[in-house]
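User: Predict the complex.
Assistant: Input components as received:
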Amino acid sequence: MTPTSGQAGASVAVQLRGPSSIDGNNQPLFVVDGLPIDNRTFNQGALVSDQANRANDYQNRAGDINPADIESVTVLKGPEAAALYGIDASSGAIIITTKKGSTGKGKISYDNLFRNEHLYRFPEYNSDYARGFNGSADPTTSFFFGPKLPASTPKYDNIDAFFRDGFTQTHNLGFEGGTTGLSYRLSTAYTDQKGVVPTNDFNRISVRLSTTAKISDKLSTSSSLNFVNSNTTAPQRGANGYLISLLSWPFYDDASVFLNPDGTRRQLIQSTTEQDNPLFNVNANKNQTRNKRTIGNFSVLYDPFKWLNVTGRFGIDAYSTIGNTLLHPESIYGITGRGVIESYNENSLLMNGNLLVTAKKTFGDFKASFTFGSSVDDRNYEVTAVRGEKMYIPDYNSINNTDPTTQRNKLTITRQRLLSLLGTFDLGYKDILFFNVRGRNDWSSTLPSVNRSFFYPSTGLSFIFSELPLFNNSSILSYGKLRATLSQTGKDAPPYKILPALFPQTTTGGGFAFGFFGGNPDLKPERTQGYEFGTELKLFKNRIGIDFAYFKNSRFDQIVSQRLSYGTGFIFGLVNGGTFSNQGYEVQLSLTPIKKEKVQWDILMNFTTFTTTVENLPADQAEFYNSDTWLFGNARASAFVSDLARFYPTINLDYNQRGLGSATAIGGYSYLRNKNGDILINPSNGLPVVNTNFLPIGDRNPDFTIGLTNEFRVGEFSLSFLLDIRKGGDVYNGTARFLHQRGLSTTLPDRNQPYIFNGVLRDGRENTESPTKNSIQVTPLTRSDFFSAAPESEFVEEDINWIRLRDVSINYNIPSSILKGSKLFKSAKVFVSGTDLWLLTNYSGADPNVNGNSATTRGVGAFGFDFGTISLPRTISGGIRITL
Amino acid sequence: MKKILYPFAFLLFLGSSCESYFDINQDPSNPQVAEGFALLPPIFAQMVRGDAWDARYIGQYVQYWGWVSAGNSWDRQGFAPGSDACGEKWRSYYWSIGTNIDLIISDGVANNKWDYVGAAKAVRAWSWQSTTDLHGEMILKQAWEPNRYVFDYDSQQDVYAEVVRLSTEALADLDKTGYSASLSRGDIVYKGDVSKWKKFIYANLARNAIHLSNKAAFSADKVIEYVDKAFQNNADNFMVPHAGTNSGDANFYGPLRNNIGNFVQSAYIISLLDGTTFTGVKDPRLPIMFTASPDAVFRGVAPASGDPNNIAGRKNRIPNLWGGLGVRPATGRWIFNDNAPHAILIYPELQFIKAEAAFKKGDKTLAYSAFRLGVSAAMDFVGVSAANRDAYLASAAIPKSGNDLTLSDIMLQKYIALYGQGALETWVDMRRYEYSNEIYKGISFPTSLYPDNSGKFVQRVRPRFNSEYVWNLATLRGLGADLPDYHTKQLWFVQP
């Protein structure tokens, strides 16, 4: 799970057991009370400006669920989730069950949370040199290659002046009650969050009513209605963002003065290419979304006979978002268009339902259950976007305030339908052996009609060996289970991919032209085949628990928009192909070292490790990449085949082994080397020669991750803390590269010392037995090109580890003996907690656990790409929880 | 409520009418087929985009302009490794014009719109011609083949032959009658005038034929025949209009698009107009085409040297092509304005082609008359007054008769006439004459060429990096295109 940044209202990308598709959606399916909900993150491709999901971030819609409404969460990690919830769960599923009202005397509950957020980790940067080139001062540039500043130069802590402490408050108020046969629960929640970046805020109001009714002995219903209203104001990030402009703002100038006395933007260079002052950026430019969402859910349970159950569910998940971006006429981002306003209206309607008929029967020692069912999923999604330039009034944020001749619209509609039939058969022998077989057939509207229907089965076997007479009354083994599953699943295509689409053109005369993406009339579904086996052990009366799982999933016939030669007629061809697999294991260890009536200590450790292995890529290419991840310079999220030498027979690949054959590689530029591995140096300037082939320069996949929770309970006090540990995995530090190229890096050598790059001259003798050793001196102070010589590979930080104190919380239940006196409170609890309090890492940047794209980006995503993104803030919160 | 019941009702009908339920996979927001009138305007825009984009770099090779600071790789006849710079024609040829042409043709053939079919083929023939002149070998036979992921290249000779074949087909389509013409609807260049489209096809064929001037099989008569069937005056020019209201519909060279802020006029073009080369004759085009420094002297940059005076306040600072001093003015000037049309092919060029062919044939009288027509039309094209034009034609810059006429006269006047928008064609000429300073009098080349050139002049542009070098590398390696000096390898058309 990778948050995209420390901003309020940012999206969160979740991947269970690694990527399941190199170009498709890898997010798990969120299922609430038996029905999937929409977890879309707005895709900036639907904007008129058609952006690459970097500059802005939007909340993923699963974030609309009020945590206070959740009773329990189950995570289904493997492809077997698809057999239960369909192809949208082929990347796993997160199954949420919500709280229901309890019968009996009515209850009122209230809880609150107040939280402070403080940003404390920043990239380090140098502050010794003035702006300029080649050692000479030049106040018209934002490169810091000028002369060394006198020691007396005043320095401003612009970073400290920019960020603020964030503050969040959350209030939950709920009512529940009911009589026999009828119960209800009403919950309301209000959250208001001010982020650490000025102007960044997020607020949400949620109201949810759920009822259950027992109509007769055989018939019961439950229903819920949830309304959520959320508003986000988020600053621009990445290359356009405040962090990059903050770092490149001269440290000898007070960045907090961002306006002239007359209210216009204070410029340093008076150039149209000047970066915005970060405070001007966040104050003058706007990026806001307002979302209203309604989720309705209705289910009927009917038991005509003791052995037969019929369950029908139907859900509607509808939301609309109004989004608005304003790029101020004086901002560098708005200056070309003389002020740009872009607004959009997003409407989504998901209707789904399922009908399951389950028959159960016991024959002696055998228990059998058979389920037959069907489900339907109908999605309508529509975005209308409008963009205008040349604002008449600088701060007036309305599309009507733009020149009508510059206004452009864009309509995006997608509709897709998915229908499934499923059958499952479960058979149990005593409580020892369980066997199941499941089959599901899906029909998807997005595939050509001949390939529309596809079937995928799964089967599982588990053996509870602790039930064997041998282990009866064993004082060591309390529970023991062996399990194995074998499953297949598929994935359909995005809508409208059979034929290429024509897009309206804004060039003179208008009209249509083909877009970047080619179609494919022979499209087939993606397939996954996987197995998993594991064991679950509980020892010493459940004081020790071990859960081990090994998994391997092979993915083939991937549906991929593969970059190809333009000879195809398109920039991307749509191809079925490519095979990769992920395999790994998970160990969950639980320990209860102390267990007494008033004192208990629980330890829970989750260990995960996996690798993704690329066997081949679509269209027999050497690389697949996601262009959204091309954040800064020539480094991007790529997948590489392992036999790369076949594609680059003349290139020395000895230094490009990290990420070879991996789906989580970093592809980028590196040093060009001779056959001995020496770096080649350009004889005309003494600088290294860059290999401009995109080759593997890193692998972002960690060796393993550990989540370690300790919980202590002493009487009414409890203390828990969660450590998040990661070993290995490379991170592309784009921010460091930016600082290096601007002359702001702290790791640069002394600029006055002549520097000789270690390597051999590319003079025609480089691959002979006696290459010419480089002896050309470069003095960084007088040679600005020194700073752009290092390729992207030099900014990949290898084997990044961290230990992060993710969460600490202390709870105190006010004893009922005290509450009795008041007669008002049934229960009361106070808590204090902190998140991300402490981080120990070998990463040189601010925080290695960030993501340069929003969660909507396809494929493996941009985890491990750090550019212009802030770290996760340290938060301290406290609150109370009372029940009346 | 009715809608809510839909899925449940559907479950009951399962298996009966599946197909129609799933028949929703046509994009309601973006069409997947269209008629020619809607496809043609963006194709014109992409013709300009490809040409203008790459002409920025080629303009450095031919010294129409230079980078404002010294040592630029393109000024030094080099290239930008690992970049798509100067790969825009490749992109427009295969993709942004690409199969849109086939959509027009298939709609036109099916529905008797032969004017559209002919125009589409004419554009493709022009695109083959101008793209191969840049890159040499291209994907010809396997282009756009479905389910193909690696592509073989065909020789430039094959591409030249294809231009002739496709042009012949296009002419036959345009000669068809008995259908109701509708080309005017989408044709923002010739307003549906089929006769002008035919002239454009002949103009492109004239280029195709004159480019082979170094070959034994060169036919000057063929060139003259093509020119005579092509444009008759400037009114026939292929000019793509620009609305110029926003960055989407503005001219590539205009300030709104902001593409040329770091380019400044070259010393060489100024020397051709300010009297340095032509015996003191001041060319009336000079103040129209260029801007003087604040001290009222017209200056340009020497090759790869940049403007050493590019500092605010200097009186001898060289303005950028919009006329601004280090800044982007709100409006540009001449062809560098937001609403200026872009010339794809013009009448003066054809007259210089004719003059060159006649000269090579030995018909000096014909060469001379075509030369004078060319210079006169070039003056008109730039917007010189008739009086100034006639004065120039009578000046010492213009030879007095066919006997005085030299090849250099023809090629230098053509060089001036094609300034800016015709950079690609000028580069063809320069390569045909092997960068001769006998022809291009007074030209000097950068003292230090790009390191990978090994001292040789640039001859070709590599195929687009992110199309071919990344995704079709095995084929390129077969051509030697992975070698560092591939861009100095002569093209077929230059060779004898």
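The first strand of chain B starts at residue 65 and ends at 67.
Let me know if you want any component modeled separately.
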